[in-house]
Amino acid sequence: MMRELTYCLSIIAALSCLLFSGAHIASGQTGISQQPDAADSSDSNTHNLASKRTYHGEVEPLLRAHCLECHREGGLAPFSLEGFAQAKAHALTSLQMIQQVSMPPWPPSARSLPLQHERCLTANEQQLFAEWVQQGRLAGHPSLPSDNTISAVTPQTIQTKRPPLGEPDAVFELPSSFEVPAEGDDIYLYVPIPTGWAKDQWIQAIEFEPGVASVVHHASFMADTSGTAREMDAETKEMGYRRYGGSGFTASNTLGGWAPGAQPMAFPPGIARKVDRGADLVLQMHYHPSGRVEHDRSRIKIHFAKEPVQKQVVELIMANLDLQIPANRASHRHVAEYVLPVDVTIYGIAPHAHQVATSVLIEAIDFETGPTILLEIPRWNMNWQQVYVPRAPLTLRGGTRLRTTFVYNNSSSNPRNPHQPPQDIFWGEQTSDEMGVVFFDATTNTPEDLKFLQWHNQNRLTASREEAARHPRGKIEAQ
Ligand code: HEC
């Protein structure tokens, strides 16, 4: 019952988020001169602030819901928005960021499926913040909150309603603390941690606790049964090993990830991932120097499935490895397709590319109903990658064609281009290479279907690898 209610509320919030943000974009983002909405024009109660937006009335709750998870003391963002003085000091740039839809950071466009943990302000909230700035950034009274209401249901308020996960069954910590320098490039560090599990484990949920939130940008989790991650770790004295584009081993499982503000990834009862006995957990830590030397020791907490597992979550990989991006091409489209051989339910979608990628569009094309956009990231930024979780698991029937379109800018107009002057770029894990891959967390109706799906998906990848190998990496012929 509770679950259904929460779900309904999420749909409403998602819809309002989509509708309002869409409307906002369509109206050219002015929005400042609009009349106060109906909630304001009720009784103003003799209190002369009642018709004005105030910090304590509306702005503080808005910032708390949408900004403070990063903009707080020790948070990931470079400054805090806690307290009236800070909010006032940063009000103008904040308004600018909000109106450009640059903050809060949320790469997917409004055309994407409704997603969990969506960071987005409704048109009402944008309006309200703009009015507060226009009306002189008033403080208001902490004891007399105004009658004005911001949209009471925000994605954040819904997300906190999920029942707590309880005590974890296993907790793993980085073996020692990692020193993140004050300055310099972002660091991708892989740290294998032995589980010592004597039997296979079914994993229902994973929680991540950043050690120092101001430097932990993201984390992803994998399992390795090959021992390769351990060997790479042993090559240097430093804890773990650094790599840029990929882990350097074939994970026996990927286990999702964490981004600031994300709730722990938890599957519904009866649905879980399997990790083989004896596996190492590998934490991929993405560190972003904060201006101060920090020592991070993050932890992950694992919850095993408590109920019999009906469905195993596996990873589907969609990629066209025959990627050749000619030098100086400012808009290079690269398409990968995969036709689902059986009915599949999708729980997570994680696109991955490097620096010259500029956008990604992921569609599902049903043979009767046509294409649906699953996820669109119009301005790709490698530093803001995560697993996107549809608000409701998405069922696609066998025969559905998944299609991914990555666009790359391999010209010198792309400030992120690792080659200046530009060079031909191919598929690979290094900084100087590119990728364009999408990972789906998926289940099937039956264990037989699951086996077939895994076999089929591997087969398609192998075919793509062979196709790519037929094209030697010389100079790309003019096309
Ligand atoms: C998920 C974390 C996160 C959330 C949520 C977030 N920010 Fe930010 N913000 C950042 C980071 C990190 C930066 C630094 C620039 C960057 O990395 O993009 C930043 C930068 C900014 C800047 C400076 C931009 C510039 O170019 O000078 C402003 C202003 C800002 N944020 C306002 C806000 C407001 C207002 C909200 C809420 C409506 C918000 N942010 C929500 C992480 C966040």
From TrEMBL:
Listed GO MF terms: copper ion binding; oxidoreductase activity, acting on paired donors, with incorporation or reduction of molecular oxygen, reduced ascorbate as one donor, and incorporation of one atom of oxygen
InterPro entries: Cu2_ascorb_mOase-like_C, Cu2_ascorb_mOase_N_sf, PHM/PNGase_F_dom_sf
Spans annotated as Disordered: 30-49
Gene3D superfamilies for this protein: 2.60.120.230, Copper type II, ascorbate-dependent monooxygenase, N-terminal domain
Keywords noted in UniProt: Disulfide bond, Signal
Domain of life: Bacteria
N-terminal signal peptide: 1-25
PROSITE patterns to which the protein is assigned, alphabetical: PROKAR_LIPOPROTEIN (PS51257)
Protein name stated in the entry: Copper type II ascorbate-dependent monooxygenase C-terminal domain-containing protein
Organism, scientific name: Planctopirus ephydatiae
Biological classification of the source: Bacteria, Pseudomonadati, Planctomycetota, Planctomycetia, Planctomycetales
